[in-house]
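I hope you will forgive my troubling you with a question about protein structure. The matter concerns a single protein, recorded as an amino acid sequence and a row of backbone structure tokens. Please examine both parts with care and let me know of anything in them that strikes you as inconsistent. Thank you for your consideration; the sequence and its tokens are set out here:
***
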Amino acid sequence: MRPLTRFLLILLLAVTAFAAWAWFRPYEWSPDPAARFEIRQVQLVPDHGYCWLDVFLDRTGAIDHDIGKEVFLASSKGWRKSAADFSMAGNAGKGTDELWFRFWLDAGDLDGTLKLYLNDGALTVKAAAGAPALDGPRLFLSSRW
């Protein structure tokens, strides 16, 4: 095998391994089991100095979401906000498999960590301390933004 072919083959394997790791890694490595759900992805959509924060969740166990318990987003700055919109998806016999929460935030609310409290647990929505750039819609597949 020629050296250039070997190099390209190794490069292809490395790129494939990185793509597989990026695709299959979880949003949060150890989500709180008491929350009964895990975050799949988060979308941030700027809107005239404010933004919409959409949090998409998947159920992790057999226990369904408790609609009677309060769900809220909390910041390391000390504020708490309820969802502006909420959707559920699932099958009649199995219960709720997916949840979607939408929060209306001021751009300054993104400067700090964010946690979503649901059922009896808390999930990390944003682990980084700084605020992301609000230059257009952004999709986050990990809590490190």
About this structure: The radius of gyration is 19 Å. The chain has one domain: 27-140. The first strand starts at residue 37 and ends at 47. The CA atoms of residues 37 and 59 lie 4 Å apart.
